[in-house]
Amino acid sequence: MPRPKTPLAKAKLTGAYSKHPERYRDIQEPEGLTALGEPPAYLSEPEKMAWATFADELPWLVSSDRALLESACRLRAGIQGGGDVTAAHIRELRMHLTALGGTPTSRHSVQIPEDEDENDPWAQFESQYG
Fold first, then answer.
1. For residue 23, what are the domain limits?
2. pLDDT in tens, 90-104
3. Comparing C-alpha atoms, which of 75, 107, 69 is closest to residue 91?
4. Structurally, how many domains does the chain consist of?
5. Which of 18, 41, 48, 130 could form a disulfide with 126 if both were Cys (CB 3.0 to 4.6 A apart)?
6. What's the domain of life for this entry (predicted)?
7. Does residue 104 form part of some domain?
């Protein structure tokens, strides 16, 4: 069974897109994906902290990843909370991380590009009047 295709956003962050653009030529990703946003209000404080940690660790996540991320936050908070943690809990969290592109083997290659000044209104103002 072949490996699933790397999401276009992740490919751009890791540099895979610039190395092999022909591999991503025919990928039709949804347009208008919105940012991940804040955690749902009904999550507990440890789960919200897990959300913030995931948002920092996996900057390519978008709003369509929220349901899976919510589940991963519950798992991470439960494991970090020191309750009864089984191998099944850890395995499930690993599966969530793999689905989100956050396993150590995929995270080590992610390089977040610096913000471009052309999209930064303050940088435009500063270059014009600074």
1. 8-129
2. 999 999 998 888 887
3. 75
4. 1
5. 130
6. Bacteria
7. yes
